[in-house]
Batch of 4 targets.
Target 1
Amino acid sequence: MKKVDKQLDIPLHLQLSQIIREMIDKGELQPGDALMSEREICRLQGISRMTVNKVIVNLVNEGLLDRQQGKGTFVAFKKKRHRYEKLEGLTQILKKQGLDVSNELLEFSLGERSQNIQRKLQMDQSVAYKIKRIRYINEDPVVLETVYLNPKMCSNLTEDLIQNYSLYHIYKEIYQYRVIKAEQIITPIMLNKEEAKLLKQPRNTLALKIDRIVYTSDEKVMEYTVSIFMSNKHDFEIVLHED
């Protein structure tokens, strides 16, 4: 690894960042290769741990590096891009791309919900279904998803159905609804302690939070979902068409 030049006016963290970028660009560090530990970089460069950590966190957030808890920091593989062109579930989209999609169900419950959830679902009662799960792409945890459903729209929903079918299949085939529209709000966030643990990422890793409301053909709210997407390994492309 090339050394920073403390005689230059360029901040040390920018110099170190450029050095690591060049090592990746020139192939000195290949995807999957381990980066030196922060302590080793500090010793080699003669700079503070805080400076080194700042550089690594920034490169992780950019998707150039991948931090794996308990293992170290590695050069990230090229991000996979997933294209959204019509209203369908994540499972259907990814399976069309030949990817293996699986879910880990964390919670399936029917209970009292906040007034905010009631408003989102346009309910006149406080009880709703909650489905919380981790979505895996090729065994990699990529999305933490929490779905809220109005029990009047999907009575007698069971955990068995959730485990064995996609939600869009359940809406269409089990309850005979046709979903026609989704409204989404996308917000950049940093993972909190619980989110980071579930997605196996360092705390404060950058991610995208997507709040989505899905409507049926008769303008009823089918679902309200909060999804947290890991943006350091996967890109999600949304294509908009003119009416």
Target 2
Amino acid sequence: MLTSPVFLALVLSLVSAFCYAAAAVVQERTAAGTADLRGTLARGSWWWAVGLNASGALLHVVALRYGPLTLVQPLGALTLVVAVPLGSLAVRRRTSGTQWRGMALTLVGLTALLAATAAGQAPDDTLGTAEVLGVALVAFVVIAVLVRSGLGGLGRLGGLAFAAASGVASGVGSTLAQKLAVGPTLSWSVAVVAVLAVAFASAGLLLSQKAYRSGLGGPLALLTLVNPVTASVIGIGLLGEGFRYGTVGTLIALAGAVVAARGVVLLSRPQPRYGRYGRSGGQPAPAPTPDLTPAPDLTPAPVLVPARLLRARLPSAARLRPVTVELTGTSRTV
């Protein structure tokens, strides 16, 4: 088992998910502090995210060399499982009970998928040139529609549209990358596939950056769901990939997918951004305590006259005259 291709694909997918999760957290924090793409490219943190995404993509491609699309792509949901605690750690916020339940459900669902798809054999079939061009054309149309919807959407809805487009682009890019990983031969068709794979992977990265401006949870969850669905549809429909144990295996895989999707939805719920000493778990923040400190008394202090002057006898010839006291300005005069 430890030397089987599927086990190697599993280990590579786990490390790849960690790289993608770290990159997603860095991207979200970078997007929150920049207003446009030019400002994003000028920040060093974004290039760290690019490096982490590149490392995750490289490991993901190698995993596709040893495992089928229906196995490797759903393991991408581990990205969200890792990204949630990393995001909480980055903002010094405790992970809520809802998030822990989401992580548990996601892991249970992925375990069921792993049991139904881990056949122990490396893939030996890839898309043909005509199939590659057809998939690329359909994906381009779908991405264009989603991007247009994202540009016309407001706030969270626009971010979800960009996330869905990113998921489609990433799923197609992984499918094309598998063709390059499984015994490629030098030809013009392989060069076309390489260009298309890089283009879709880059589009997925830029679209995810756009999506994270509306937050991390929802866009990352939708991206995590759309990516394996896209790749699995291609793998089952065009490459003949399936599940073990016949109908029972298919039912196990579907049940695992439903459970994992439920976990991803729980993980995608927005959480309050309180600090280390703030409340967590979705509880409302306490109302601010009103400031009851009395306003300072700006009334000028009275002019004190020594008592011995008051007891002194005035000359008999002295006449009492009115005294004018000036209490304004920088000094007091009598």
Target 3
Amino acid sequence: MKFNIIYAVGLLLLISSCKKEEELRYDNEHSAMNVWLGTDLQLRDSLVYNYAYKSLNNFDTIKFSARLTGLLSDQDREFQLKAISGDLDRVKEGQHYVFPKYILKANTYGGIFTILIKRSGDFKSKEAKVVFGISENEHFKKGAVEQSVMKVLLKEEFSKPANWDLDPFPYTRLSSFFGGYSNVKFQFITTVIGRTPTFRVRTNGTAVPPDEVSHTQALYWQSRCKLELSKYNSEHIGEPLKDGDEVIVFP
């Protein structure tokens, strides 16, 4: 009787051990990948991508975070994204966005990755939405529900900064540095200086970043814009930079 009890206990322990080993092996082979927009631990599942506030370069990036749920691996593993919903008849892979190759490095839990956004004029009259998520493969399943989708709204909507023509002391209006406003000029400035011209220029006192810049900084950006405009026009003889019929100039 005693022998039978010992045998039964041993058999149960063996079964339990085998089951745990199978679970561990399964977790290692089929880990889950959580994704969210941004580069920090604040979980964001949506953003608005406004082409009007982006440079005129052919490509831009949206950054996202990816985090492993499961066991580490001593090998690099590839994971993939796909568009899972939204206005997929209007937002198309290759035409509006590109997925580079995503690799989770060996013995790491996650990292920061990018989706490439292509310059487009397709969303001037009507915005469009696309929802990205994990495309399950032999390495990864999608993660927790609240960390499995990334919603991006694409649009192109300009808005003239309120301080372009008027800004009270101790600030100086943006038109003092960049001249009259136009949408093309706005994007040209963004491309040249690497940020949208929605800041305030403090003429007196110390500028408080990121929403304020010094008068000296604004003068430097003005000079950069004039040089880049001259370069553009010299490369496009007879076709200077315009917004409609208006030739772009800087004071």
Target 4
Amino acid sequence: MSIIVGFVPTPAGEAALAAGIAEAKLRQQDLFIVNSARQGALVDKAVATEDVLAKAAQRAADDGVTATVIQPPYQHDLADEFLDVAREVDASLIVIGLRHRTQVGKFILGSHAQQILMQADRPVLAVKADNGHF
């Protein structure tokens, strides 16, 4: 069993990473840090640089947690791809970060977090950034 974290280089992503590390340490499980880009996209602000991902993995290691970074490309649906990875690594818990969105933004763009919450076949911990106090 393991913990899987959906990580993007944002305050919500940092909060998810911190919660994922804490859960992995508490449960004595490995951590998988997932950061994914749309296949064929030339630019994607959700994609973390190698340096950022290395620092994320090091944060886990500093807390005694074994972490693996996974960057699977997705073609159609990020939430489906993320949930596939959760099944592949036999995740006991999915950790995601939430950000505030307007009702119109949710309607037009949809929400990957909402899809993950509704479609996951395992527990999901959703956290939000709290001005850096997580």
